[in-house]
Design a protein that fits this description.
Number of strands: 13
Number of helices: 17
Low-confidence stretches: none
Distance between the termini: 66 Å
Oligomer: single chain
Structural class: alpha/beta
Order of helices and strands: EEEHHHEHEHEHEHEHEHHEHEHHEHHEHH
Largest sheet: 6 strands, mixed
Length: 420
């Protein structure tokens, strides 16, 4: 394995502490594909699925050779992954797709997909001898980093924006003991600052600019395929925030295709919130990438200058994919159906469902195709959004599918009237 620049191709050893190439562009982990062809197979991973031993009880490290083949003594795992793949008639009818599956990454230990990449990257931090780690976050990354840092015996430092973040996520970072620093500015300002901090002091950066975060997140698609008995779906649909997740999935799928473990390439759809849509604007208008001032109820994707946009575009083009945007109204209406299915997810997750509905109506996705939509975080990450939707208290959003509490007198007669 080596680190390689995505732009100029310069290579670096994986044990060198760096997040960018000398040319300024991002790095990615490059695996020896010919070696992997001899070492990995569906049968190997299916055998490990029945084992409970460390580290193969993790939904990341089960695929260790495809992720990061390091000594087990460095691996920090809770374990993460092993999340469920659901079907829902309600969601299927709402979206208009007969064969849609929901991969619920909110079932990870800290309730979001971030745990997969964090396990991998913090294991590298341990291997490199770091005692402190840091990230900028709108919530999910900080929650995950704080938890895994504590498990690894490291100090965690979180930079959060002064603008609105979901308290369910902030509560986790505080509870897990992170040193939390709130800055004047948005997420993109916090991201600029944390990179300077990690460069100036001996602190390891754990945002998705870190190439090892991407490696851990690849395990989402590996696990989906294993749950589908290694049958490749037609589409993967997922939210687009900092764009590390779709970067990871497209990279993982490309490597499986090169190895020969899959024989066709699923299409990728990245769904951005309309108020945080720089990738969509670039894609739709065929213009150079330009950051935006992000504003959306979906705080996990409230990112106007996503660091992984180049990697993201490359993966979308490779998969013959698309980029779409959805409004906050569409996000919250889709969320109402996910929640009412007994599954539940935070607003950003439901970009996937709102986007699937929009792409199906546009004829881009056929209703008979098999679609896997990624739900990135748990419903309780942002309980305020849930309650305020159902109480019709969200500014600028109509509570189309509200399930309001019913006020009655405390009597059997009143209850009977409601039930009848």
């Amino acid at each position: 394995m080596i680190l390689r620049c995505i732009e100029c191709g310069r290579e670096y050893p994986i044990n060198e502490v760096r997040y960018r190439c000398d040319c300024g562009d991002l790095l990615e982990v490059v695996h020896d594909i010919e070696r992997l062809k001899k070492r990995v197979s569906c049968r190997l991973f299916d055998e490990r699925l029945a084992k409970r031993e460390f580290p193969y009880n993790s939904g990341v490290w089960r695929y260790k050779e495809l992720i990061l083949d390091i000594e087990n003594k460095f691996i920090i795992s809770r374990p993460e992954g092993n999340t469920n793949l659901y079907q829902s008639d309600k969601v299927g009818e709402y979206v208009g797709i007969e064969d849609i599956w929901l991969k619920h990454e909110g079932e990870n230990p800290t309730a979001s997909f971030k745990d997969r990449g964090m396990s991998c990257a913090i294991s590298v931090a341990k291997m490199l001898g770091f005692k402190k780690v840091a990230c900028a976050s709108t919530g999910n990354t900080s929650a995950s980093m704080a938890s895994y840092a504590d498990l690894a015996g490291m100090e965690s430092i979180v930079f959060i924006p002064e603008e609105k973040i979901a308290f369910g996520k902030l509560a986790q970072a505080l509870a897990y003991g992170a040193k939390t620093i709130q800055i004047k500015g948005d997420f993109d300002d916090a991201m600029k600052l944390v990179q300077k901090v990690c460069q100036e002091f001996r602190v390891y950066l754990l945002n998705s600019i870190n190439p090892f975060r991407i490696e851990g997140q690849k395990a989402i698609c590996f696990e989906v395929l294993q749950q589908l008995d290694w049958q490749v779906p037609d589409w993967f649909i997922l939210p687009g925030g900092n764009l590390g997740n779709n970067t990871a999935l497209s990279k993982g799928l490309r490597e499986l295709y090169q190895i020969g473990m899959i024989n066709r390439i699923p299409r990728m759809a990245v769904i951005q919130a309309q108020g945080a849509n720089p990738l969509y604007t670039m894609w739709k208008e065929r213009t150079p990438f330009e950051a935006v001032k992000a504003e959306t109820i979906a705080t996990a994707v409230k990112i106007g200058n996503p660091v992984s946009w180049k990697k993201s575009i490359r993966g979308i083009e490779w998969s013959r994919g698309v980029v779409e945007q959805v409004t906050d109204q569409e996000i919250m209406d889709a969320k109402a159906f996910v929640d009412a299915s007994g599954i539940g997810a935070e607003p950003a997750s439901c970009c996937s469902i709102a986007g699937a509905r929009k792409l199906t109506k546009a004829g881009i996705i056929d209703k008979k195709e098999r679609v896997v939509a990624i739900l990135t975080g748990n419903l309780l990450k942002d309980p305020d959004a849930v309650v305020n939707y159902h109480l019709d208290r969200l500014k600028g959003i109509k509570s189309t599918y509200a399930n309001k509490p019913i006020m009655i007198e405390s009597s059997l007669k009143a209850v009977r009237k409601v039930l009848e």
